Predict the 3D structure of the following.
Amino acid sequence: MKIFIIGGAGYIGSHMVKIAYMAGHDVITLDNLSTGHQDAVLYGEFEFCDILNSEDLDRIFKKYNPDAVMHFSAYSLVGESMIDPYKYYNNNVSGTLSLLKVMIDNNCKKFIFSSSASIFGNPKYTPIDENHPKNPINPYGRSKLMVEEILKDFESAYCLKFVSFRYFNAVGHDPDVNLSERHDPETHLLPIIMQAVYGRRESVRIFGTDYDTIDGTCVRDYIHVNDLANAHLQGLNYLDDNNSQSAEFNLGNGNGLSVKEVIKKVKEVTNKDFKVVEEGRRDGDPSTLIASDVKAKRVLKLQSDFPDLEEVIKTLYIK
């Protein structure tokens, strides 16, 4: 298939470009490089484009005539969304609306959406399945939930078929190619810990030690970025089945680790020590997010290549 990968110069998107290309698909990356890096696009074609620019989008759609779109170009920092919600609603909601309108105008009706576990808010139960109540507690999560609702309306009105993947925590690097997480500033736990391992960061901060968890720190479910990318391929295959209906899937490993447990595991794998500083809670952080991966495994036949955090850390650590 000919696939547009929106945000393919970013962390998850660049891994998706590689996985899709290796699977034999014709891959075209669209990115405005606001947070991505063009040198991370190692395969296929590249087009500089902002999804809020409908004219550019339409021109590029007519140039390539894609069969499907994978959408990774959302802003995704919870804390930033609390202090600058306009940025998140404008890009994540208005930008996605712009993209969907151009898709429909060009008769491209297969859409894979990167949603988020943030749509669930503070969990009522764990592991979190697809039917869990949705009550996001920050603008980032609300922007993702708004798009999920928009997709249902587009399916009803325009016959758009979609798969929404609710990510829990994407981690790791592809072990075979020179791809990495290059956020600036870095806000994700494992990359921050690895910076401390390499001596590029003075300490690792823990935000909140009084949560109702095993050791008082937040618990998260971690899934390797290649497992995420492979899930997207399976989602595309699912949509290519003429009998398939649009669907939502939670993507995680089905188990959780606390911040302190992750730090301990990194120290064990790398045999490195570093300073850890405990601070107060951040706004918008749920205490526990663990995915139920039952539906994804049953429907999409997903299997993890990196089911253990130790194997994930090894993809990040170069001795």
